[in-house]
Amino acid sequence: MKKSNLGKIARYQLVCIFLLIGLVAAVVFSINSGTVHMSVKDIFDIIVLRANEGSVESNVIWKIRLPRLLAAAILGGGLSVAGYLLQTFFRNPIAGPYVLGISSGSKMFVGFTMIVLMHYVKTIPAGIIVLAAFVGALVSMAFVMAAARKVTDMSMLLVVGVMIGYICSAITDFFINFAQENEIANLTNWSLGSFSGIGWSDIRVMSIVIFSSLFAVMMLSKPIGAYQLGEGYAKSMGINIKLFRLLLVLFSSLLAATVTAFAGPIAFVGIAVPQIAKMLMNTSKPIIIIPTTFLTGAVFCTFSDLLARTMFAPTELTISTVTAFFGAPFVIWLLLKKKK
């Protein structure tokens, strides 16, 4: 084996170890942040050994902090992979679910579904919310794809995406005017973006959807690598381009919709994290970048959620406030780099 290949493998391993350490650190800090403080040993005993069941510490971990932490990791990773698929589809590093208005489309359909169904049922199944978000994502994606056929400049396509986002937000606000007071409070908190209030039943649903989608995307890593080299090359490799592009749309929409359904629209994660993963690994191979993107997104969102909860405690910031604070400058840097 060549020294260069050995160096690449060593780099991949070091980056993965670094990200795993970061995720473990995020777990410890997140679980131990708040009014109830616990040592690392207590956290280990409660989670691994199931010690002190029924105590305040155990209830805080199992009913509040651990579900929220897992949601931040799973949804953050899923949103990052959705951004990677959209960047592959549009062949541009500044494409993402939030900027292209896909998250806003999901938000619009979820808001409408919640307002209508809350008149008839007290609780809405998580599967219904995910389905509504998926339909909204597909509708927004259809408008973006229609604009992409007419617009060759990516900057104009981003403007179209932002306008679609504004239209969807305006329609959502229109729905809210006809909602009841308790519905307005729920919709407002959800639409601002947050991992709070997520339970174990929600974790089960999002895990099934996101990890199944991630497995399917991993199976597409070879076609993605060929597609990145050009449609002509991909066709010569026997890839059905229309089917492949349809799969990219479906999986990116499903991942983005799942995130929006449970946590609301989250800004800039889908743009910044895939680029960070590529810089960390110094490669564009999909088989390497896809899991790295998921892991990087999990670490990024868990730390962002930690900052959102603790920076101005007891006041909690929205998750998009934190992700935009770190992600927006990175996107500006990408735009300037692309312009050069």
Automatic annotation (TrEMBL):
Keywords: Cell membrane, Membrane, Transmembrane, Transmembrane helix, Transport. CDD domains: TM_ABC_iron-siderophores_like. Its main location: membrane. Gene3D superfamilies: ABC transporter involved in vitamin B12 uptake, BtuC. It comes from the Bacteria. It is a multi-pass membrane protein. The keyword Membrane applies. It holds the Pfam family FecCD. It is found in: Cell membrane. Belongs to the binding-protein-dependent transport system permease family. FecCD subfamily. This is Iron chelate uptake ABC transporter family permease subunit. It comes from Acetobacterium fimetarium.
